[in-house]
Protein 1
Amino acid sequence: MARTLPKQNAVVETSAAQIAVHWREEEYYYPSAKFVGQSNLSDPDINERFSEKNFPECFREYADLLSWDKYWDTTLDTSDPPFWKWFVGGKINASYNCVDRHLDKYKNKAAIIFVPEPESEAPVSLTYRELYVRVNEFAALLRDFCGLKSGDRVTIHMPMIPELPVTMLACARLGVIHSVVFGGFSGEACGLRAADSGSKVLITMDGYYRNGKLLDHKAAADIAIETAKQAGTVVEKALFWRRHADQNASTSPFVEGRDFWVDEILPRYSGEIVPPVPMDAEAPLFLMYTSGSTGKPKGCQHRTGGYLAYVTGCSKYIQDIHPEDVYWCMADIGWITGHSFIVYGPLALAATSVIYEGVPTYPDAGRVWRIAERLDVNIFHTSPTAIRMLRKSGHDEPTKYNYHFKHMTTVGEPIEPEVWRWYYETVGKGEAVIVDTWWQTENGGFLCTTKPALDPMKPGSAGPGMPGIYPTILDEMGEEVHAGSGKAGNICIRNPWPGIMQTIWGDRDRFVTQYYAKYCKDTNSKNWQDWPYFAADGAVQAVDGYFRILGRVDDVINVAGHRLGTKEIESACLTVPEVAEAAVVPVVDEIKGRVPEVYIVLQPDILPPQHQEILAKVNHVIETMIGKIARPRRILIVPDMPKTRSGKLMRRILAALSNNMNTGDITTLANPDVVESVRVMVQGKEVVALTDGPEDLKAFGSVD
Ligand code: WT7
């Protein structure tokens, strides 16, 4: 049966594909002989082994890094495109692979080193043996006290403390699907995600440190549970880990029969061992919600076998993790980077993974480098936003500390070549190889990156496809944009890979529409070749095959490496009764890459004296419905929004105004006059010098 796909892009105003990009070509940097000598991947034969003629069997190499309860029969099943199935017939447990299997050799080695934010609290190490004990005891509690079994969902709203991976691995041990919501998200955002996943159990914490303050986190749980209830899901039990023994960081009261302190229940399960449940390779391991171009966040559903194989392969070959390494990824476990590259990948390889609770610049700009020195970290992983912030607040700080990285990662946003060079020269002291890894929540692991010992680095470019990933750039018509043409287009992945999400939780249609409808020419086809994955990023490919990522081509704003949907923020604004229309656009920010700016049109009859109060309300509602990360730079009250004749709101024009860019041709709008009056409000009476602006902003909002 042919599946009918909703039509996309009836109107494309400007597309990334039509923009010519004029980059200065950057020079190559080469890894040191010392790095190459110890690298996990120094055999150039990898390119041949993972070439298209060996697809999909090449991915056995990643799956063979794991311990399987039952080996699989079919590497890739393409019978129901684009719902690919990997390692079919195999059985595996992720918790076993990240913990139990290391006990023989590494039981006394640190699995996790926790660094509390207050420097007065010393770092705490958990050995693999200790991790094993804690995961087992907590799994027993989940099974016997909460009655959880494989296939159930649990929402976790926790900060960066070791109890978070313990909780995730305990879920994985039972086959319970965890859904970790970033700790900085509001209670409401957490509650909506809990409801969407149908979680009956919420696991959270009383409080945690952030920028020198012990925050009350329990309050968010009460709001989350209430929000979930309104959305039709009753959270029956809430479990609270405690930040400090015998203290309570929260003042909100416990609800009898619903709220429980973990440390009061856990002693009942002391010493219990829970056998890891052999899960189908295709059983979901976790959900990770992310923003898309429509209002509701999507629950990206990741499979057990393929995901774990893929992140383990990435960690071994691209992150170059050996068991002897001390590896520190500064992301938050509440995002996909933390799942793949703090928890699952490194632990599957028996690495020592560092977890830092707090803010990188607390109490001063030297903190990160002090931690690196103290723990003798040798692999470091962070985002351009953090690099920009550290560069600004302490340009020479790294030189004052005696640490040595062999390897560094940048991920989450495009990195400016200047910032890259500071990372390389000053943070890496010219000794560390850098990988710029491009990928997304949906992808499980890396899509484009250099292979650290094999491919030279090029500042600002992610590099070629990861082994086994065949990227291409397509224009709006689906024609390939050739390497070296100087033209940008939509980057797509031509083939399935084991780390790709299975589906959007509870919404198969949206999965197909969002990622495949744009370029699939024949929806009856069973050939994977007919189903390119549309990533919604603009990119350009240089003659050497390296991809340079330009940013989102849809209505998603990448704030400090975190995705926010414009529609999510807009719907929050519209809950303020005085707001009639809202539009949210990205504005270039020196540190965070992009930040949201909000335009609102008010209901008739609202007088200027009310404006201040409305602005405060809009600000507040964004913080409570989404979180502080979505806080706008400015909120502008405008008389009307620029619209096409068909009524489509032109965010691209507002983005141009907010960023002092050329608006392009506006004569075809239904209301071109409004652009000038909005311009005066945004930029003032004087005509400012206009620029061409970043490529992603020119294309912003062109796909929806
Ligand atoms: C979006 C995905 C995947 C981990 C963190 C973000 C942007 C990601 C890079 C990079 C340029 C990048 C893209 C992508 N992005 N990595 N190395 N260079 N841009 O995950 O929240 O799902 O965001 O982040 O725009 O689509 P995410």
Note: Residues 128-145 form the longest helix (18 residues).
Protein 2
Amino acid sequence: MRIGITCYPTYGGSGIVATELGLELAMRGHEIHFISYANPIRLDPGLPRIHYHEVEVSNYPLFQYPPYCLALASHMAEVAERYHLDLLHVHYAIPHSTSASLARDILKPKRRLPFVTTLHGTDITLVGTDRSYYPITKYSIEQSDGVTTISDYMRRRTIDVFHVANDIDVIGNFVNVSMYRPDPAARPERKRLMHVSNFREVKRPLDCVRILAYVRREVDAELMMVGDGPLRGPCESLAWDLGVQDHVTFLGKQDHVERLFPRAHILLMPSELEAFGLAALEAMACGLPPVATACGGVPELVADGVTGFLEPVGDVEAQARRVVQLLTDEALYRAMAQAARHDAVTRFSTDLIIPKYESHYERVLSAK
Ligand code: GMT
């Protein structure tokens, strides 16, 4: 198949999933055309069957808000025609699915160009329910020839909030288990907690610093904070306020998190809401049990007490107690680390999940 993929190319789960999906599809022989305003992170140029088309948005003085959505739609239609694309697959509803719908309309007099929308999380839970975006999000989902999302929770939430009649195919996030794998030799002597996110409110990164402060009353542990975003500065200040500044390292944005996970013992994911929790899956594949919050789609990924621990959102003491339990009970830790890896391999490896996208595309292409 010839597939056009559009995503947010910067840091964020939906862009990572879209990019890795494109790379895996190309390895399986499909021709992939990324259409976006920047080269997606994790996309190494020069790979066979991978193309990248940059969308340029002219900033005419009259435009207070440059219309990226329209420039994207025009470019999608052009690329689809020039490279004979079979379909478009857009990740994150706003504005990608609206642009895809316009591109399909542009080409309608000539040929059919179906599009698939994958809903990732905040496009539904935050942005889509914002009054100013609600009608266009609902319309764009309804216009989609195929809709997928990443957890049962997201499927239910989309139907509850938008009352759409689309068949929504649940296809979980996936992980390349040969790349993301445990490396006991890399694990440091000192107990290390790790957090990976874009440091937005919804991720509650401040809770990680609070958890560390609790944990350190009983275990000599440190915290590795990976990523960047609006709450990074407040996290650094909080570390000083709580007197743990010498035990927290901020690494900023990192392209190769698969090299970092094996260097830690536990992943902290104290999110307010998580549609799936890709970081937890990547950690599990590397043999790190997540201590996370029981929110959104996370219970579909993490089996509480088996592959990690789930505690209420904001209950930092409960999360810290779980961390201490794991760090002080070697047998429990080993069993949970093994179960986490096993679950990632047997439920969410690329070999299992990518064919689900291929089947979805085939259904969309064969529908009239
Ligand atoms: O929250 C992020 O890091 C970004 C966000 C996005 O849409 O870019 O991530 C969402 O998509 C990921 C990949 O499908 C999911 O694993 C995350 O759970 C989801 N984030 C939220 O729901 C907050």
Note: DSSP finds 14 helices and 13 strands in the chain.
